[in-house]
């Protein structure tokens, strides 16, 4: 079974046995031109041999293309699943062909995920298949493999003219016969009552993280990346403003701003003064590792992990009787904000609601934000009334 081992830090000479301290000191003095940071994923096969082309692929994306470590870890997990499927069939990665990739795709259509026990969505399947195709295109270009059928674009169907506006490289991958037809789904925001019920169900710090998403529309990775220096805590003697503008690091290393209300900052101030301070003190007494300046830490004094937060959200939603994801909280902010701005525009305000929401959500293209406009335009009560009118009356 293939596996991922994350690169760690080199130990200090005083942290190793005396017999190898000289080697540890010599290792710490070696300078590497492009060092891989701690946490870099290394892929190994079932024989514990390093899968060198996969590691080189990840190295290029992290070091040369300057992708984030989270993005590289995602690529590593996708490639791990592919190599694991090949090893189960005793197929060498360089000899994989279209039959293997189709079987891999069809397996995800029939079997649920071994990790979540839930069926794969079409979007997830396409994302995994496109990552495999991208890897083989890269491997052929860098001469790790020669004439791979997964790196060619010969098995493509003709696409509609709508796809001509997409990036050509992405269009080649998207129109491949390996990629399933995918329909765009509209966001499903929560109602105000559901948001209040969910927030009341969650425990610190997860209730405050969810509140930040609902109030600002930040992605979960952007919220968890906030530090103590990013959020201005309220000064007791100064008159408190109604809101503050906070600069954040967004997806793709873009800089953006969010508008945080006074009530949200007050809740954050209370969390830092009560919970965060107590957890840091307890971790210090236990001589545990405390998160340096992370705003959101758990009761063990370490930074909240994305997977843990999403698991808590799902459990909280299940306890409330509805499904919840972190992206739904972001969609809730977008739809509520857009509906309010549309109302102001109808009253004569000289604003562009869609453009404002695009800026607040830090979207790169206005087409992405347009999904929320269409979600707001769908009146659920009207649709239910239309459907009821189609049902024949009993005789």
Distance between the amino and carboxyl termini: 64 Å
**Which CATH class of the largest domain is shown?**
Mainly Alpha
Trace the largest sheet across and list its strands.
1-2
Main sheet properties: 2 strands, antiparallel
What number of domains?
Answer: 2
- Sketch the topology as an H/E string, one letter per element: EHEHHHHHHHHEEHHHHHH
Shape: globular
Low-confidence stretches: 154-166, 169-175, 379-387
Strand content: 5-15%
Please give the share of residues in helix.
Answer: 40-55%
CATH fold assignment of the largest domain? hpI Integrase, Chain A
Q: Pairing-aware structural class of the strands and helices?
A: mainly alpha
Q: What's the pLDDT, averaged over the residues? A: 83
Number of strands: 4
CATH superfamily of the largest domain: Intergrase catalytic core
Global Rg = 25 Å
Number of helices: 15
Q: Which architecture name of the largest domain does CATH use?
A: Orthogonal Bundle
Describe the structure.
This protein has 395 residues and is mainly alpha-helical. It has two domains: 3-174, no CATH class; 187-395, Orthogonal Bundle (hpI Integrase, Chain A). Helix content is 50%, strand content 6%. It contains 15 helices and four strands. The chain has helices at residues 21-28, 52-64, 69-88, 98-110, 122-141, 168-174, 192-201, 206-216, 220-224, 262-285, 306-320, 326-346, 353-361, 366-377, 380-390; strands at residues 3-6, 41-44, 243-249, 255-261. The chain has a two-stranded antiparallel sheet with strand order 1-2. Strand 3 and strand 4 form a beta hairpin. Helix 3 crosses helix 5, helix 4 runs antiparallel to helix 5 (122-141) and helix 12 packs antiparallel against helix 13 (353-361). The chain is globular, with a radius of gyration of 25 Å. It starts with a strand and ends in a 5-residue tail after the last helix. Residues 154-166, 169-175 and 379-387 have low confidence and may be disordered.
């Amino acid at each position: 079974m293939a596996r991922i081992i994350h690169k760690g830090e080199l130990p200090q000479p005083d942290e190793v046995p005396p017999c190898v301290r000289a080697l540890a000191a010599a290792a710490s003095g070696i300078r590497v031109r492009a060092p891989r940071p701690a946490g870099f994923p290394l892929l190994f096969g079932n024989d514990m041999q390093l899968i060198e082309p996969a590691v080189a692929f990840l190295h290029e994306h992290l070091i040369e293309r300057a992708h984030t470590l989270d993005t590289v870890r995602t690529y590593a997990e996708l490639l791990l699943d592919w190599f694991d499927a090949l090893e189960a069939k005793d197929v060498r990665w360089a000899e994989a062909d279209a039959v293997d990739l189709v079987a891999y795709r069809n397996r995800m259509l029939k079997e649920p995920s071994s990790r979540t026990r839930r069926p794969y969505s079409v979007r997830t399947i396409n994302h995994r298949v496109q990552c495999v195709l991208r890897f083989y295109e890269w491997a052929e270009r860098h001469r790790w493999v020669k004439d791979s059928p997964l790196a060619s674009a010969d098995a493509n169907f003709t696409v509609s003219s709508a796809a001509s506006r997409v990036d050509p490289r992405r269009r080649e991958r998207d129109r491949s016969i390996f990629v399933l037809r995918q329909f765009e789904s509209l966001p499903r925001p929560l109602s105000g009552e559901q948001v209040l019920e969910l927030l009341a169900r969650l425990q610190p710090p997860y209730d405050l993280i969810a509140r930040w998403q609902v109030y600002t529309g930040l992605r979960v990775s952007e919220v968890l990346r906030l530090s103590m220096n990013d959020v201005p805590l309220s000064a007791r003697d100064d008159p408190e403003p109604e809101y503050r503008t906070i600069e954040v690091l967004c997806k793709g290393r873009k800089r953006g701003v969010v508008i945080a209300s006074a009530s949200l900052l007050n809740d954050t101030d209370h969390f830092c003064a009560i919970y965060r301070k107590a957890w840091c003190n307890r971790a210090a007494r236990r001589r545990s590792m405390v998160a340096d300046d992370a705003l959101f830490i758990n009761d063990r004094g370490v930074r909240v992990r994305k997977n843990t937060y999403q698991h808590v959200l799902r459990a909280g939603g299940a306890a409330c009787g509805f499904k919840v994801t972190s992206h739904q909280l972001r969609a809730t902010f977008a739809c509520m904000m857009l509906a309010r701005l549309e109302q102001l525009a109808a009253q004569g305000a000289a604003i562009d609601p869609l453009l404002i929401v695009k800026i607040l959500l830090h979207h790169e293209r206005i087409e992405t934000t347009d999904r929320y406009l269409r979600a707001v335009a769908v009146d659920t009560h009207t649709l239910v009334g239309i459907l009821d009118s189609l049902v024949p009356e009993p005789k």
